[in-house]
Amino acid sequence: MNLNSRIGSKKMELPPHEGSVLSVVDMHTGGEPLRIILSGYPEVKGEGVLSKRRYVRENLDYLRRVLMFEPRGHYDMYGALVVESEIPEADLGVLFMHNEGYSTMCGHAVIALGRFAVDYKLVQEPRSPETQVNIHCPCGLVKAFVEYSNGKTGGVRFHSVPAFAFATDVIVAVPGYDEVTVDISYGGAFYAFVRAERFGLDINKSKTRDLVDAATAVTNSVKSQVKLHHPTSEDLAFLYGTILTDGKDAYSQEPTANMCVFADAQVDRSPTGSGVTARVALQYHKGLIQLNQTRTFQSGATGSLFTGKAVQETTCGDFKAVVVEVAGRAHYTGVASFVQESDDKLKHGFLLK
Fold it and tell me: Which UniProt keywords apply (predicted)?
């Protein structure tokens, strides 16, 4: 028996090591990665999902760095930690993590978690043609609907928390670009929106580095010049990032492209689920689309597609809001078990910028 045959015939197991094991399932949605943590975390304390988010940020952040940073992850890795929810109708709670910290909503993760929850039996007996999965995100309860047929999961759509336009035509001073007019909208997280052409860029053709630099400059300026607030919790009142668009906001059957730069200049490979939610809410606010008019959103990074539409009018505090439906597909890429050897000087992770 040759070497490859001998290796292949053995069950893949971790060699002798010290320390706990972190087990994960890796997926991607439209190219954007999601590392779902199965086991290895200490108890996450807190009475609710938002308090659990604060707890991991203050007490367990080293594990975020272990799983998101190199050598186990990379600068643009994204993660999801499944936790208990205090909401009776929730099938699971989730905390989102990335290169900078912890988000309040992540649509690409919800799409992946919908499949994951059905496949890993976190819900009651699956039903055809769709199985509903109630996911308690830090921003609130999100309802996912997972295609299910002949024992297999497929595409996923979800209904957002109330999404709303926070402010339109806001003028901010952006170093290197003078005054820039942006819109700010909420889709489970707050985003600033601006046309890429304002910076002389093309969302599909320009270098990613140039798009990231422009979006990051806008994010930093909005953070310093615009005070955000959310009607239900101050934990939600922060700008997550900037989304550069192709400017095609009026309703059309043709796809409209955008690129989301969030957290610490992290680039979303997908069209961005919470970003699509916020963009649909913005378009509805401006009268550019109507209820149940489906638009297709394309990632400027990978060309992958989500669809989005406003399905119901609602309110969020004093804001007129909509529930947005976003749909896409997620795929599995593998499973892994990670360890931290005691003599590994890089065991806590690092990032190269």
Answer: Lyase
